[in-house]
Amino acid sequence: MNVTTMLQLASRNTLRRPARTAFTAGMVMVSVALLLIAISLLGGIFGQILKDGIAGAGDVRIAEREFVQREETLPLYSNLGEVETLAKAVEQVEGVRAAEPRIMTGVTVTVGEEFGDLFARVIGANERYFVERSHLKDKLVAGGWFTGASGELVAGKWVVDQLHAKVGDELVLLGTTQDGSMSSLKGRLVGVVHGAGLEQAIMLPLERAQYLTDLPGAATELLVYGDDYQQAGVLAARLRTLPALQPRAVQAWNERDPWKAITGTVQGVMGLMIFIIGLLTALGIWNTMTMTVLERTSELGVLRAMGLSRPRLVVLVLLEAVAISVAGGAVGVALGAIPAWVLSTRGIHYGARIAADATIGISETMYGEFDATIVTRCFLLGVVMAVAGSLVPALRAASIQPVTAMRSGR
Amino acid sequence: MRYLTLLSLVVVSSLAFAEDALPSADELLGAMDKNLTFQSRRARMTMTVEGRRKRTYDLISYGRGQDDSAMEYLAPARDKGTRMLKLGGDLWLYLPGVDRVQKISGHLLRDGMMGSDLSYEDLMSSAELRRAYTARVVGSDTVDGVACWKIEMKSHDDTVSYPRRVSWVTKDTLIPAKQELYALSGLLLKTWTMSDVKDFPGGRKFPMKMVVVDNVKKESSTTLEFKELEFGHPFEQEVFALRWLERH
Amino acid sequence: MSICELKNVCRTYGSGAGKVEALKHVSLTIEPGEFTVLCGPSGSGKTTLLNQVGLLDVPDEGTLSVDGQLVGGLSSGELSKVRGQKIGFIFQSFNLIPVLTAVENVELALQLAGREGGERVAAEAVLEQVGLAGLGHRRPNELSGGQQQRVAIARALVKKPLLVIADEPTANLDSENGEAVLSTMQRLNREFGTTFVFSSHDAMVVAHARRVVTLRDGAIVSDERRAATS
Questions:
Q1: Looking at the complex, does the CB of residue A304 fall below 8 Å from at least one CB of chain C?
Q2: Radius of gyration for the alpha carbons in chain A, expressed in angstroms and rounded
């Protein structure tokens, strides 16, 4: 039997029981539409969290191995020496747009005479990092940006609020050097920023952070930026071939926590969701096709008697299920496309408060992700569910003995 | 009863090794205290910390009795002008860069000062051992070829930094050439050696060099070397006051 | 060369208490051009025997060969192929594919026989031969019982098979249609020499046959050859 005839037979068969076919197609339609909306939303939210997070953390991060092993304690003694030279060498590598040194360390902050016990995180980096990567100038809510005068610092809004400080106040920071000695620094607050990951931070020019931590010419991390964060793995592999980086840890963003864990979680959630929706739909199709095969036992027997091979019979049954899912999936995609499109253009507004409180970067408005790839994937998922669900009934059909064509007649 | 035990010990050991009689623990501790504690002391010292990096500090220190002490950093430039004042159980730290005073209290006193193996308490107190510990002379031993009495000490005061100590006291100078300092759990916290003993007026002997190893922190040792040392020198009351800390 | 040869064939269904010996040591040879009927009461084994001849089933014991080829060692797929190419089937309940038109049903047989090209032409020609010219576009539910059975005959014959198996072909038809169907089959047997093997207990069918094989309790009790009566 040729393919045309099989398709013809399969599609005509779906119309034998219009109500049943409509119901089954309806199931496929609903699950495809749901998947489209859910994937679009999750993908969009996740993609945004990533982009915001990676903007500050770099597509690829270079650090000493020991630093990475003990990262929670931010061990200053494990640092990249002569970091500017290293940065220049890294910037020569193909695909690298910028390499930014960064120092992060914990301090206690005070406004006033004696040291208090407010804990904050100092981020020391070059101007270019703060402006072009973290977009801090856009996140100022009070005061202004560094003017280049000495002794300036910019702080996160939470820190400023906790200290009851205001622009122009002198802040005193107490931290430690890489040897564990106590170290101190004072600075004039010139600007206040607001946004995820910044609230509990104090921004300093790199040299000042180097002084505070006694890391002359060094930094704890070198953050590398390429053109496309999705290609970070490729960039990291290329960087690892650089001799200067051989003894060091070179990690793409998705090899580091929290994104590694988040990616894993999001993929897990998406996978689970797809699995559950897919399973339910496949079960529905299983049921439909089982009934269909049972009803047509003698007809299938006749086809076998007439010379239809088992594999072809399996394909015939699968095709029928695919025909239903193509119809249902097409409508499902159309249905789901509307809310998905709205989500991608208008987004969901969370509000500033939640955005600031979140430990991971969340913007105030989250947008869905909607493109041809997602639509195609959801549609194909519908087809896959059909095949999966109809596999057992199809195999059962194939095991029908041709004699049944004779017997059922009586 | 104790005398009898001591006598038999002496008999046995003299039969076996023909040794001197063991001194009483109380006597030993008293002699150590006489050497190491003071009413007043003025010192100029260098502290070399050999950890991941090697750093050398130049310090001037004033001590009064067992609990009061004042110190100032003279070098390196980064730390110059940093001052510490300990009065009883309180410690204040002055940081010149920010012109601020930080109070350090409680367990922080036992943290390594400037990331060294010596804690604030180690450096700035000089408590009498006899008051805090009950001791037992265990026997004789040698440290680097020098004959010592080995003495075990247990504190009856739980607030002490080192509830248990084992000291090797040199027989002729009565200075603890080596001390092992333990926590209540039995964990060895620090090893403290003293050497280069010099004579001082009044029969005092004092070591000009001390090396402390923090056994919990790895690969690190701190060496203290006294460049100038004076005992019994009267000072202005002012040193032991907060005014001194903040003076410019 | 005989069309089909059975030697000492046994076929048993079920097990234990429900065991049925449907065929007991049956031997039979079908020669080319025969118009043979298998008859006997219900449970005599005639359908079972027909299934064997039609390669819808294989024996438990004994040998079976079709067109000189032993079928004992053939796989299910190979049997399918042989059936598709060499054997045509006509069922009691017609068993036309309801979603295909008459001509499409006939074409299907050609496709399953592995013959591509010219199916439409051949199918229409055979439909004409069975007297259904012009009705090819109708679906089975738009045809009478007699007409459906004739489509079934066309379907069985379009691939010019060696052998046509018919199981109670007239059972669901009235006597007039039954007569018509039977004469069509006789005519085709005479004109093209196609071998027909039926199972039936319709006296009219038996009367038209040139060879009557009677079965009882799974064994052949008589095998009569005679001249055609009409």
A1: yes
A2: 31
Q: Which amino acid is at A377?
A: R
C31-74 pLDDT per residue, tens = 999 999 998 888 888 888 988 898 888 888 899 988 888 888 88
Per-residue model confidence as pLDDT tens digits over A230-262: 889 999 999 999 998 989 999 998 888 878 888
Q: Do B100 and A110 touch (CB under 8 A)?
A: yes
* In-domain check, residue A324: yes
For residue C93, the chain A residues in CB contact (below 8 A) are 298, 408-409
CATH number at residue C162: 3.40.50.300
- Three-state SS letters, C197-224: EEECCCHHHHHHCCEEEEEECCEEEEEE
> Alpha carbon of A33 to those of A36, A232, A368: distances in Å?
5, 32, 14
Every domain of chain B and the residues it spans: 23-36+128-231, 51-126+232-246
CB atoms within 10 A of CB B28: 22
Fold designation for B51-126+232-246: outer membrane lipoprotein receptor (LolB), chain A (2.50.20)
Closest Cβ opposite residue C112 in set A1, A298, A402: A1
Chain C residue with CA closest to A3: the answer is C111
The pLDDT, as a whole number, for residue C183 is 85
Alpha helices in B114-197 (DSSP H): 120-124, 129-132
A264 pLDDT above the threshold of 90: no
Longest dimension (CA), chain C: 54
Give the count of beta carbons closer than 10 Å to the beta carbon of residue A149. 8
State how far residue B244 is from chain A, nearest Cα, in angstroms: 17
Per mean pLDDT, which range of A215-219, B131-135, B225-229 is the poorest? Answer: B131-135
Average pLDDT over residues B154-161: 84
The predicted pLDDT at position A410 comes to 35
Domain that holds residue C172: 4-225
Binary contact (C77, A13; C-beta < 8 A): no
Number of H helices, E strands in chain A: 14, 12
pTM of the model: 0.65
CA dist A407 to A92, A260, B106, C56, C95, Å? 80, 62, 95, 11, 11
CB contacts, 8 Å: A67 with chain B:
none
Cα angle A318, A323, A327; round to 5: 145
Is the distance from CB of C199 to CB of C50 less than 8 angstroms?
yes
- Confirm whether C230 is domain-assigned: no
pLDDT tier for residue A409 given thresholds of 50, 70 and 90: very low
Query: Which of B55, B79, B101 faces A114 most closely, judged by CB atoms?
Result: B101
Chain A closest-CA separation from residue C131 CA (Å): 23
Q: Name the residue type at position A188.
A: R
Q: Is the dihedral of CA A122, A125, A130, A133 positive or negative?
A: negative
Q: Which of B95, B109, B221 to mutate to test the interface with A (most CBs of A within 10 A)?
A: B95
At the top level of CATH, the class of B23-36+128-231 is mainly beta
Is C51 within the bounds of a domain? yes
Q: Give how far C93 is from chain A: nearest CA, Å.
A: 5
